[in-house]
Amino acid sequence: MKHLVLIFLLLFTPLVVSAQDGKQLNDSVVAVSDSTALDSLNASLPVEAVDESMLDDEEGGVHKRLKKTFLDGNAAFMSLVALVLVLGLAFCIERIIYLSLSEINAKKLMGDLEEKIMDGKIEEAKTICRETRGPVASICYQGLMRINESMEDVERSIVSYGSVQSANLEKGCSWITLFIAMAPSLGFLGTVIGMVLAFDRIQELGDISPTIVASGMKVALITTIFGIIVALILQIFYNYILSKIEHLTSQMEESAISLLDIIMKYKLTR
Prior knowledge:
Layout: H1 2-72, H2 75-102, H3 106-118, H4 122-131, H5 135-145, H6 151-169, H7 173-205, H8 210-269
Helix pairs in contact: 2-7, 2-8, 3-4, 3-8, 4-5, 5-6, 5-8, 6-8, 7-8
């Protein structure tokens, strides 16, 4: 019996020891993995902070570079070119808003006027013209005001008032062309002055240094580039304005011809 107990103890003891060793090994593995995860988490936090700081530095760097470029190009001339840009854009925006508000459905307007005129409702046709914005309605109203006169008088009235409306459409465009011409001219003036300053600096020092020449050339080129960019921006807006003016002028001419035909039919049916 004692031998059996001893044998049992000898067999069971290694199992207990191995189980305890396995538990200790698992605990150590878990501890190592936890510490590794914490280390990786701690390591990731500074990277994100560094990324955010780098983005902030890049955004701030863009503004700093633009500011430095503006100052390097001689702030006085760069300010003049910037003023030309602001004034030119102001005139462009005003013209675009005015022309956009002047656009209407001319075909629908002429259809409504034809219906009223052929029914003899001249006053209602005039009311439609008064309540409709734009040069097309204004021209039609002037023609209806002289509907009882001769066709020559009606045509003369429409043509005369059409010229007035065309001039109103082009109001302010001469200023835009002026600013388009001024922007590169100011840039070239800054170029010439930058070159003169560079030569004066060389004369003062008595030495042709690449640094002195490069600084003068930098001022010259920056002002020229900025002036050309401003002129290109204003030219794009100006061409868009011209396209809208041409569209409205075409509508005015077509509507005037249609109105004369309608008035002629009305006179023949009376």
